[in-house]
């Protein structure tokens, strides 16, 4: 397996997949190998092959949580969110898996079912209060719900954990802007640490600035 992973890491994706398929023919009970192959295929956006592989593996090993999680993640990445929900929900009910709860929150967030998303995201954040992704997700969901004050609380925690993370700086800056506090230093740092992210999301900043200006004029 190490040689296969090395090939993949070196960019020889076709050879790595070919070798892993052969490996699975000889080691058909290696669950991790199924998950790895599905991950390879998903990375290459070959969702159909990855789905077929995982569904076949699940008929052989129906109680393997790693396969269920991998299939849920595949559906999430393929934006088939409705198909992802029952898989992550099953894992949450079976094991209270933090990873599954996080992915369930992410999936509900993508479906714009934010109150449900928030319930699962808060559970994860309470279990792992120093986890960057959990705090960031809670902040994102609260922002979507229009609760910028509460969103800022969690984004501030995320900023404490990762003070040079461009995405966190940008999102914290947005809450500062909406709440009428000084936001410019955060946007400048976001632009410095994550120029591509800033460029991609600059329109969101422009939209909010326009909204704030219009609100001031009405007042």
Automatic annotation (TrEMBL):
TPR repeats (start-end): 31-64, 132-165
Keywords, in A-Z order: Repeat, TPR repeat
Superkingdom classification of source: Bacteria
Keyword Magnesium: no
PROSITE patterns: TPR (PS50005)
InterPro entries, per database record: CellSynth/LPSAsmb/PSIAsmb, TPR-like_helical_dom_sf, TPR_rpt
PANTHER family, sorted: LIPOPOLYSACCHARIDE ASSEMBLY PROTEIN B, TPR REPEAT-CONTAINING PROTEIN PA4667
Protein name (record): Tetratricopeptide repeat protein
Classification lineage: Bacteria, Bacillati, Bacillota, Bacilli, Lactobacillales
């Amino acid at each position: 397996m190490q040689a296969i992973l090395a090939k993949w890491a070196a960019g020889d994706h076709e050879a790595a997949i070919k070798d892993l398929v052969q490996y699975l023919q000889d080691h058909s009970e290696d669950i991790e190998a199924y998950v790895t192959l599905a991950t390879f295929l998903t990375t290459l956006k070959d969702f159909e092959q990855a789905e077929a592989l995982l569904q076949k593996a699940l008929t052989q090993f129906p109680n393997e949580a790693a396969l269920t999680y991998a299939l849920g993640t595949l559906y999430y990445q393929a934006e088939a969110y409705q198909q992802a929900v029952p898989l992550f929900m099953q894992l949450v009910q079976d094991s209270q898996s933090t990873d599954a709860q996080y992915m369930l929150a992410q999936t509900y967030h993508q479906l714009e079912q934010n109150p449900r998303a928030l319930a699962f995201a808060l559970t994860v954040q309470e279990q792992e209060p120093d986890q960057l992704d959990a705090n960031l997700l809670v902040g994102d969901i609260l922002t979507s719900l229009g609760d910028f004050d509460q969103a800022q609380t969690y984004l501030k925690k995320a900023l404490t954990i990762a003070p040079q993370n461009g995405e966190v700086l940008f999102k914290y800056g947005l809450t500062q802007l909406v709440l009428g506090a000084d936001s410019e230093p955060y946007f400048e740092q976001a632009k410095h640490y994550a120029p591509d992210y800033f460029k991609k999301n600059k329109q969101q900043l422009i939209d909010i600035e326009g909204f704030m200006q219009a609100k001031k004029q009405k007042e």
